[in-house]
Write a structure and sequence with these properties.
This protein is mainly alpha-helical. The protein has one domain (about 20-254). The chain has ten helices and no strands. It has helices at about 20-30, 35-40, 45-65, 70-85, 90-130, 140-150, 150-165, 195-200, 205-220, 225-254. Helix 2 runs antiparallel to helix 6, helix 6 packs antiparallel against helix 9 and helix 7 (about 150-165) packs antiparallel against helix 9. The longest helix has about 45 residues, at about 90-130. The protein is elongated.
């Protein structure tokens, strides 16, 4: 009687670790991004993280909106309009103030959906940068990476909600500095809009997101982290320059 090693079919194939669920992946990208983004690159998913982002976005919106003082914002705009055009009638001022309040509330509820288009754009840009420089990856990997890398900003939204509800009422124009996570609170947005825009870009949660983008981009593109950092940071700086351009345009009109 002879004996031998019995091999099951596919025994020579590499054994992949079990797939993590969406909540395990969220925790993973926040605290062990290298390993987690490798897993996301192997088996990207979109529906789970996207639904979580949208759900949290709408919950925080419904909680925050009653605490935003759109009346104060409308009064500020009315005052600015009177300075620009002293002959403007009271009826025109009231109409613009009413539009400001309506537009502000509408954008608050449309915001989470508009965010989806932003994620698509970011994923497309990342994938385009990868392909242009000879990297790997497909759109599903790029979008999954973008959604999971966005989790620090989702956490930021939750913190903003808690602080706004604790304050009672908040001027919508001050929302960028409700959480003192960027140095923009050291300046006045009305008096120094360009500097305010620049400083608000260097937010702790934004930088955290950029770091996660670097890990994720490296995982699906097969670039080194140094090369990924150079690409992702360069794209981020372009966004900052565009923001400063809009801030300068708004300041020139004011």
């Amino acid at each position: 009687m002879t004996t031998g090693n019995l091999e099951s079919p596919g025994a020579g194939a590499p054994v992949q670790p079990p797939k993590k669920n969406v909540f395990a992946r969220i925790a993973g990208v926040l605290f062990s991004p290298a390993e987690t983004f490798d897993d996301i690159a192997r088996r990207p998913d979109i529906i789970g993280p996207l639904l979580i982002i949208l759900a949290i976005g709408y919950v925080t919106t419904f909680l925050v909106m009653p605490h935003l003082d759109f009346e104060a914002l409308a009064m500020q705009q009315a005052e600015a309009m009177r300075k620009q055009n002293p002959n403007m009638g009271e009826g025109d001022v009231e109409r613009v103030a009413s539009m400001t309040k309506t537009w502000g509330r509408a954008m608050g509820f449309v915001g989470p959906v508009l965010g989806v288009f932003w994620y698509l754009i970011v994923a497309a840009v990342l994938l385009g940068a990868s392909r242009a420089m000879g990297g790997a990856g497909d759109f599903k990997q790029a979008l999954s990476t973008t959604l999971y890398a966005w989790m620090p900003l989702v956490l930021y939204g939750i913190i903003v909600t808690v602080i706004v509800m604790a304050k009672g009422m908040v001027d919508p124009s001050q929302m960028a500095t409700v959480v003192k996570s960027n140095p923009a609170f050291l300046t006045d947005m009305k008096e120094q809009p360009i500097l305010f825009s620049l400083l608000s870009s260097f937010d702790i949660f934004t930088i955290w997101t950029i770091i996660l983008m670097i890990f994720g981009f490296s995982a699906f593109s097969k670039f080194s982290r140094t090369k990924s950092a150079a690409i992702v940071v360069s794209l981020w700086l372009v966004i900052i320059v565009v923001k400063l351009g809009f801030a300068a345009l708004a300041a020139s009109r004011a």
